[in-house]
Design brief:
The structure holds 2 protein chains of 2 kinds. Chain A folds into 2 domains: 1-47; 50-125. Helices cover 75% and strands 0% of the residues of chain A. Chain A has helices at 2-13, 24-46, 53-63, 67-75, 83-112, 116-124. In chain A, helix 3 packs antiparallel against helix 5 and helix 4 (67-75) runs antiparallel to helix 5. Chain B folds into 3 domains: 1-78; 83-267, no CATH class; 288-456, Rossmann fold (3-Layer(aba) Sandwich). Chain B contains 17 helices and 6 strands. Chain B has helices at residues 3-25, 29-51, 60-76, 84-110, 116-143, 157-177, 182-200, 208-230, 233-257, 261-267, 288-296, 307-311, 315-327, 346-353, 364-367, 389-392, 443-456; strands spanning 300-305, 331-336, 361-363, 376-380, 411-416, 436-440. In chain B, helix 8 packs antiparallel against helix 9. The radius of gyration of chain B is 25 Å and the shape is globular. Classes of the chains: A mainly alpha, B alpha/beta.
């Protein structure tokens, strides 16, 4: 809902674009991507059983650490240490925490979900 | 486009595909692990590709960030499973912080020359990111018990919150019209940071699963908005997937409590004037040996865990008892309520960690039809999720919330620390039913003692 309102706002304010503004074709393409990703996400995620809801949350957290790629470009854009570089560096740090921590703990959790036969076989060892 | 930017875009496309496949693999525990390794590979490809971005002049601060991030992230992946909720809340905070900092940096670089669309998306990103950061930190503090878990409420709270929200949105709209006014931009951030705090402090510990899911959703949407600012599709896709995942989980959690999202956020649970069933009679205390005999000669035993199992660290002792009973030919099942614990799926992870195979973990809808044929239902540190008032008393504060109907079993044993009420402060008539026996004491100690007692039977 709120995102729909925001998209509406983008469109309203897009009329005053200038400078490094987003070109309308790119905006439309981005909105397509957003809409399709939303439908795809709904389909894929509704099929995740409640059994795996905690790993799902940590997995999506790790994946949204992809903002790392935006942070990297900002942290590396200047040879001099200025405000943007510091902001970029802190952003790289926080996103990297989610990427490494998120994928590792998701894997650690998923390793624990085992079939009965596997658990029994291990108990015999 | 130059050759290198084609390669860059190709890695982003690859990453997007691998992320979707990774999430799809989570539909079954057998495929999940492999799928997430693919998603991690996609992430690695995207990050490596970005290191060749033509706009990068210096690698020093990138490498420092990557090193420090790994140094914090890896230990954060080693926390015990009982600390999963607070760890997850912290990672929502980091994700949202990264998104908002990218937004602030973009604004300091481009200022008012971004044009309307980018400005709008950037403001949305920073606003949502900031409130998620402080909100998640408060949630983490509550879960770690650095803060009181009970709702913090004061007179005129709704009015104060409304004022902050109006201030935040006012600054946002004002700044959209005058993007050169940095004061409005930073005013918006200040209001958003404060709003995040105010949003989470009135929420009680039992409502945490909803809040966790909602913060997850906000962190994701904030990343998606970053994608609009940077015209980067992989960011939009990953952010949207995260945002929708959190959104779906919030809805599922709300359904499992028969409440609306607005009610959770603004209701202030426990302040509802509700009539409790006049609880009559006394609680029947049972002895350890009595319980051991019941368990040992049962055909089917169902364990129903709640947050109390996590605080008592009783999951291993529970599995030991379960194994022992299975060796004696008892059919052992675990019934998991969707909002048991402090985050979605919390109990499943704890029991899986204790080596309970996933085929023994049953969802609420699967276990309820089995309960009438169950000889002993054992409630371990759960309260509201087994409260029959939710089903029987339309005036109860939790009326209509689906429950695990342990009171339909032939015998109910409740492991409980003391005679107090649950987190919601409601009296639980289950404890007074003739079918119910109370076994007081620390859940872990009780279960360990039961293992020994059953061995002697």
């Amino acid at each position: 809902m709120s995102s729909a309102i925001m998209i509406g706002l983008f469109v309203v304010f897009s009329q005053q674009s200038e400078g490094t503004a987003l070109n309308p074709a790119v905006l439309i393409a981005s909105l397509y991507v957003f809409a399709l990703a939303a439908f795809l996400g709904y389909q894929v995620i509704s099929r995740v059983p409640p059994l795996l809801h905690t790993p799902l949350m940590s997995a999506t957290n790790a994946i949204s650490g992809i903002s790392l790629i935006g942070s990297i470009v900002i942290a590396g854009r200047s040879k001099h240490l200025d405000l943007t570089t510091i902001l970029g560096c802190v952003a790289v740090t926080s996103a990297m925490i989610n990427v490494t921590g998120g994928f590792l703990i998701t894997d650690r959790m998923l390793k624990m979900f085992r079939k009965k036969e596997v658990v029994k076989a291990e108990a015999k060892k | 486009m130059t050759g290198s930017s084609y390669i860059l875009e190709a890695t982003y496309l690859l990453a997007s595909i691998l992320f979707v496949m990774g999430l799809k693999s989570l539909s079954h525990p057998d495929t999940a692990r492999r799928g997430m390794i693919m998603a991690a590979a996609g992430m690695a490809a995207a990050v490596l590709g970005t290191l060749f971005h033509p706009g990068i002049e210096s690698y020093l601060w990138i490498l420092i960030g990557l090193a420090v991030g790994s140094a914090i992230g890896i230990p954060m992946a080693m926390v015990p499973m009982t600390a999963m909720p607070q760890r997850t809340a912290l990672s929502h905070a980091f994700g949202a912080l990264a998104a908002s900092l990218v937004g602030v940096a973009e604004y300091t670089i481009h200022g008012s020359s971004m044009g309307g669309v980018k400005t709008g998306a950037l403001g949305f990103e920073v606003m949502l990111g900031s409130l998620t950061t402080t909100g998640s930190l408060i949630a983490a503090a509550k879960l770690q018990e650095l803060m009181r878990g009970t709702p913090i409420q004061f007179k005129g709270q709704h009015f104060v919150n409304l004022l902050i929200a109006v201030g935040m949105l006012g600054c946002y709209v004002g700044w959209l019209i005058h993007p050169e006014a940095a004061g409005l931009f930073y005013g918006m951030i200040g209001c958003a940071l404060l709003f995040g705090v105010m949003l989470v402090i009135p929420i009680g510990a039992a409502d945490m699963p909803v809040v966790m899911s909602l913060l997850n959703s906000y962190a994701g949407l904030s990343s998606a908005a970053t994608g609009f600012v940077l015209s980067n599709n992989v960011l939009i896709i990953a952010g949207t997937l995260d945002g929708f995942s959190g959104f779906i989980l919030s809805i599922l959690m709300c359904k499992a409590m028969n409440r609306s999202i607005t009610n959770v956020l603004f209701g202030g649970f426990g302040s509802v004037i509700a009539e409790e069933t006049a609880v009559g009679g006394t609680m029947r205390e049972v002895s350890l040996d009595d319980v051991a005999v019941q368990l040992a000669y049962a055909n089917q035993v169902v364990f129903v865990p709640g947050y109390g199992m996590a605080t008592a660290q009783a999951q291993h002792a529970c599995r030991e008892l379960g194994n022992l009973l299975e060796e004696r030919g008892v059919s052992v099942k675990y019934g998991i309520h969707p909002v048991a614990g402090r985050m979605p799926g919390h109990m499943n992870v704890l029991l899986a960690e204790a080596n309970v195979p996933y085929s023994s973990l049953y969802e609420m809808d699967q276990i309820n039809p089995e309960l009438p044929a169950t000889d002993v239902a054992m409630v371990i540190g759960a309260n509201d999720v087994v409260n029959p008032d939710a089903r029987d008393n339309p005036k109860s504060a939790i009326a209509g919330m689906p429950i695990i109907e342990v009171d339909r079993a032939k015998s109910v044993i409740v492991l409980k620390r003391g005679k107090g009420k649950g987190f919601s402060g409601l009296e639980n008539p289950l404890f007074f039913k003739p079918v119910t026996g109370m076994l007081y004491g620390d859940a872990k100690t009780s279960l360990t003692n039961l293992v020994q007692a059953v061995q002697k039977v």
